[in-house]
Structures are given as structure tokens and as C-alpha cells.
Design goal:
Length: 145
């Protein structure tokens, strides 16, 4: 399906952490295998609140911090998808503390959420929310979250 070299882990305005690299690669490799999808390239960007807020403002017109943003790229190539998942580590840490679980669990939750956005799932309408939630819940159970 997809080898590790197709998953790129990047950092913007936060300190790189190899344990986060391993967590992201393991989580996404499992999701890709479970869903039987092909990615040409999947970029995971761990960022600060300030950086993700600027992306949110520039691409969604929302001048606020968010936990995750997902960008899918049309390649015109049927052999695989391309996309970016940007995660604010600061927001993820706050949410983990508020929800009473560790940062690893919170990052898995966010990566699963972003992954399903890349596959075309959304949560604007209730029926879409229910379908996405079902996929996420199943994936998180398989990941032990």
C-alpha cells in the first residue's frame, strides 16, 4: 500500500519530537491499511496555535485557533491521494488535559479525524456527522483509544 517514506512529519514553530513522529506514522499506517487506500504523499505538520490560526484565517476565513486543519490535493492521478494534516500541539495538549487523557490519545483522535476528512468525510450535516463519527469510533477502537 504505502511505505513510510510517503508520510512526512514536519514541525512549524514547535520543537520536533521523534516520539510524535512514531505515533503519527504508526497511527496513519494502520488507518491506511484498514481503509485500503493509497496515498502518494501524506504530510503531517505539528504546529503552534499562532501558525494554525493563520492557516485557519487564510484558508477558511476564521480568525481563531483550531485543533486540526486538513488539506486534500487533487492530483489528477488515480494511483493515490495527496494531503496535509496540520495539528496544533498547544491546542492538543489543552484538550487532552481538559478531557482527562494523555497527549498521545488526543493526537490519535485528531489524526483519525483529519484522515477521514482526507477521505471525504465531513460533519457539517447531521447525517454526515453520524457517518464520520462511526468511522472514527471504529478506527479509534482498533487503535486502542
Amino acid at each position: 500500500m504505502m511505505n513510510r517514506s510517503n508520510i512526512n512529519i514536519l514541525y512549524k514553530s514547535v520543537r520536533p519530537d521523534t516520539s510524535l513522529d512514531r505515533l503519527a506514522i504508526k497511527t496513519l499506517t494502520k488507518l491506511i491499511s484498514t481503509e485500503k487506500v493509497q496515498f502518494n504523499e501524506l504530510n503531517i505538520l505539528f504546529s503552534s496555535d499562532k501558525f494554525i490560526k493563520s492557516l485557519n484565517r487564510n484558508f477558511r476565513g476564521k480568525d481563531e485557533t483550531t485543533d486540526i486543519l486538513t488539506f486534500y490535493y487533487e492530483t489528477g492521478n488515480k494511483s493515490g491521494l495527496m494531503g496535509d494534516i496540520t495539528v496544533s500541539l498547544q491546542t492538543a495538549r489543552r484538550q487532552a488535559k481538559e478531557l482527562g487523557h494523555g497527549i498521545e490519545a488526543e493526537l490519535r483522535i485528531l489524526l483519525v479525524h483529519g484522515f477521514y476528512h482526507l477521505l471525504g468525510f465531513d460533519h457539517v450535516k447531521n447525517k454526515d456527522y453520524l457517518a464520520m463519527n462511526k468511522k472514527e469510533s471504529s478506527a479509534l477502537k482498533k487503535l486502542g483509544v
